[in-house]
Design brief:
Layout lengths: L2 E5 L4 H6 L34 E6 L4 H14 L4 E6 L2 H9 L5 E4 L5 H11 L4 E7 L12 E6 L6 E3 H8 L26 E4 L5 H11 L9 E2 L3 H10 L3 E6 L7 E3 L1 E3 L5 E2 L3 H6 L7 E6 L9 H10 L2 H9 L9 H9 L3
Parallel strand pairs: 2-3, 2-4, 7-12, 8-9, 8-10
Antiparallel strand pairs: 1-3, 4-14, 5-14, 6-10, 6-11, 12-13
């Protein structure tokens, strides 16, 4: 569904949201100290009739972006901000042609998007991580990922390398075709593994290609499905099925597998594991900025990101019930360094 927010006016209710019970914030996050700023006179993202600077992209960031906007306008009375969430796929084209200040996305820009972007702008967009993804798909937010099998399958855990050996081909340690290769016995020994997932060019697929498969082709018998609901629904019906989908799916016919790291620790995608980076399938929420080679970063974008990466900005992220997870101070500082 398209989320449309025009000018958002700061209100006591919006500002009170920031004080809601929320995931603990890193005490080392810096306080926001506003600096005066205006949009460049030539900015294409400013509506010439209303003076509103527009943000766009994924609709699932509406909760946090509306509150970022409210706080920014409260601290910068001369600035008007709006958000028009046309969807993740709209972010790059709108940013490419300077129609939005930021492109909000729950995934990284993929190669299909980056090639025309570079051709038009002359370089890559600047990716700023503003939060960790959510632990449940219930609110239709971008999530971290998890590996699922049918509840009849006795397997309980895998390593990330084993996940790759199941879902892709050409792995250095060989590819897994039968469940017996993963140590299952008796009737499972010779049972063929049935991998399910999305296509390589989708959000999940592109993430797995970059972070896990290193560009390797999907398994020959990999069945492509459109989304988490389709993937988990199919696995729930297939005792030999396995696949990667959104973290936090609740279905009595599924088992989420624990992921064993190289040091032997077992992770399941708990918030602390995602934020610390110990869980290998945690992802980020991004604000993409239009950066033209040879030109300084847009001053309004830079000041807005100072707010987002501050204690007050991360408190907004933490305030959304069952929402995105705030960055640590070190993670926020690493993103701030990109603005220099």
């Amino acid at each position: 569904m398209r989320a449309l927010l025009t000018v958002v006016v700061a209100s006591p209710l919006m500002l009170a949201d920031m004080a809601m019970a929320a995931p603990a914030l890193d005490a080392a996050l810096p306080a926001y100290v506003p600096q005066p700023v205006t949009a460049p006179a030539t900015a294409g993202y400013v509506d010439r009739k209303t003076g509103v600077a527009m943000l766009g992209g994924a609709e699932h960031v509406a909760f946090i972006v509306s509150r970022f906007n409210a706080l920014f306008m409260a601290t910068h009375p001369g600035v008007k901000l709006g958000f028009d969430g046309k969807g993740t796929s709209s972010a790059v084209p709108l940013l490419m042609y300077d129609k939005i200040l930021f492109g909000a996305m729950g995934r990284a820009i993929n190669p299909i998007e980056s090639v025309p972007y570079r051709k038009i702008v002359g370089g890559d967009a600047l990716a700023i991580r503003i939060a960790h993804t959510a632990a449940t798909p219930e609110q239709h937010l971008a999530t971290s990922l998890a590996v699922y099998v049918n509840v009849a399958n006795p397997l309980t855990q895998l390593t990330a390398a084993q996940v790759s050996q199941i879902l892709s081909t050409g792995n250095a340690g060989g590819d897994f075709k039968r469940w017996g290769q993963l140590g299952l016995k008796e009737e499972w020994r010779d049972r063929v593994i049935h991998p399910y997932g999305t296509a390589a060019y989708t959000g999940f697929g592109d993430y797995l290609q970059r972070e896990l498969f290193q560009g390797r082709a999907l398994a020959v018998n990999h069945e492509e499905l459109g989304n988490t609901e389709a993937i988990t629904g199919r696995i729930a019906q297939d005792p030999a099925g396995v696949g990667v989908a959104a973290l936090g799916v609740r279905n009595p016919q599924l088992r989420q597998l624990a992921i064993v790291s190289k040091d032997g620790s077992v992770t399941t995608g708990a918030d602390e594991e995602v934020v610390s980076g110990r869980y290998p399938f945690g992802r980020y929420v991004y604000l993409y900025v239009r950066r033209v080679p040879g030109q300084p970063l847009d001053p309004l974008a830079k000041e807005y990101l100072r707010l987002v990466l501050s204690r007050e900005g991360q408190a907004i992220i933490a305030a959304q019930p069952n929402g995105y997870l705030p960055l640590t101070a070190a993670q926020a500082q690493a993103e701030m360094e990109k603005l220099k």
